[in-house]
């Protein structure tokens, strides 16, 4: 199975480096010409192994049988619209974490829209690019509605250090990976504002309940949210400075500027989740609060006051 990774950011590069343990990999990057000595500009200290072919020609990547889309969620539809024909018959694996602001769907639906005959899959879970690139042990969820395709992808994309657990719950896997970024922003803001670890634990727990509520409403299995793609990823991103969403929240809580060039998936996802909640009548107080925080229409103290002032209820 010939594999290509589309997206030369930190995570796409890390996947290409890891998958090279299994055989040749093509890595497509928009800025391939800016790389020096096969070193990723966004992944310090990581040089591509010889089995990875770096290219700026997307047509070269599209010759692969299996395509991994490792780019920001809000960029996925635009990239797919610009691709030539020829996705049918290929295994399409989304490695994006988010909800599209225009369509209010996850990446699997966008892949299916572009290639109706293809069977999309989701690769997600608790992982930092630097850990994967260094060969540190990492476990992820590989979700595909087609069991045979899921098994084939699990075998093809697992490596000695990258262990994939298979699931058929695509909606649960993609929503767990998307919504945990929203909660990570909230937790970062909480710690940045000096509200303490107890408040963060409360946000993580109530955030997990919110994630599950929306995901199950949209067709997910609750057990999926309790796995790697939900609780596992939530735990990682809400507690580590390596998480961009958590660091963004820290900056909000401290009243500091944040690097405008850094992709923060949780900001757009919060807006999309809030829109889904309004559309379907699902209460999502944390998502709504983070949406307004990131838009600048709510301060961190106001956000905490609003959440704490909510009616007392049974857990």
From TrEMBL:
Positions annotated to bind NADPH: 11, 30, 97, 129, 244, 265
Gene Ontology molecular function, alphabetical: glycerol-3-phosphate dehydrogenase [NAD(P)+] activity
Transmembrane residue ranges: none
Pfam family, one: NAD_Gly3P_dh_N
Catalytic residues as annotated in Swiss-Prot or TrEMBL: 180 (proton acceptor)
Keywords for the protein's UniProt record, in alphabetical order: Cytoplasm, Lipid biosynthesis, Lipid metabolism, NAD, NADP, Nucleotide-binding, Oxidoreductase, Phospholipid biosynthesis, Phospholipid metabolism
Binding residues annotated for sn-glycerol 3-phosphate, in chain numbering: 97, 125, 127, 180, 233, 243-245
UniProt pathway: Membrane lipid metabolism; glycerophospholipid metabolism
EC number: 1.1.1.94
EC supergroup of this enzyme: oxidoreductase
Subcellular location: Cytoplasm
Family: Belongs to the NAD-dependent glycerol-3-phosphate dehydrogenase family.
Record function comment: Catalyzes the reduction of the glycolytic intermediate dihydroxyacetone phosphate (DHAP) to sn-glycerol 3-phosphate (G3P), the key precursor for phospholipid synthesis.
Name by which UniProt lists this protein: Glycerol-3-phosphate dehydrogenase [NAD(P)+]
Gene giving rise to this polypeptide: gpsA
């Amino acid at each position: 199975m010939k594999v290509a990774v589309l997206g030369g950011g930190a995570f796409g590069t890390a996947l290409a480096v890891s998958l090279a343990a299994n055989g040749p990999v093509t890595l497509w990057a928009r800025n391939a010409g800016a790389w020096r000595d096969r070193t990723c500009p966004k992944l310090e200290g990581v040089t591509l192994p010889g089995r990875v072919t770096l290219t700026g020609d997307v047509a070269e990547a599209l010759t692969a049988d299996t395509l991994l889309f490792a780019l920001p969620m809000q960029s996925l539809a635009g990239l797919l619209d610009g691709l030539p024909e020829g996705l049918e018959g290929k295994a399409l694996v989304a490695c994006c974490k988010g909800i599209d602001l225009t369509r209010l769907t996850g990446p699997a639906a966008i892949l299916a829209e572009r290639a109706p005959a293809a069977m999309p899959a989701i690769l997600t879970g608790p992982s930092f690019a630097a850990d994967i690139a260094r060969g540190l042990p990492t476990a992820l969820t590989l979700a595909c509605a087609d069991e045979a395709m899921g098994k084939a992808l699990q075998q093809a994309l697992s490596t000695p250090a990258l262990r994939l657990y298979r699931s058929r719950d695509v909606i649960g896997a993609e929503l767990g990976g998307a919504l945990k970024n929203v909660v990570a922003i909230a937790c970062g803001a909480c710690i940045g504002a000096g509200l303490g670890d107890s408040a963060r634990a409360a946000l993580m727990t109530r955030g997990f309940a919110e994630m599950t509520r929306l995901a199950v409403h949209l067709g997910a299995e609750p057990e999926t949210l309790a796995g790697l793609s939900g609780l596992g990823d939530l735990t990682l991103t809400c507690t580590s400075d390596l998480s961009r969403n958590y660091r963004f929240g820290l900056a909000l809580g401290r009243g500091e500027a944040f690097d405008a060039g850094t992709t923060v998936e949780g900001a757009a996802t919060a807006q999309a989740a809030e829109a889904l909640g309004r559309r379907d009548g699902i209460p999502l107080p944390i998502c709504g609060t983070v949406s307004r925080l990131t838009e600048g229409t709510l301060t961190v103290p106001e956000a905490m006051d609003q959440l704490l002032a909510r009616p007392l209820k049974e857990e």
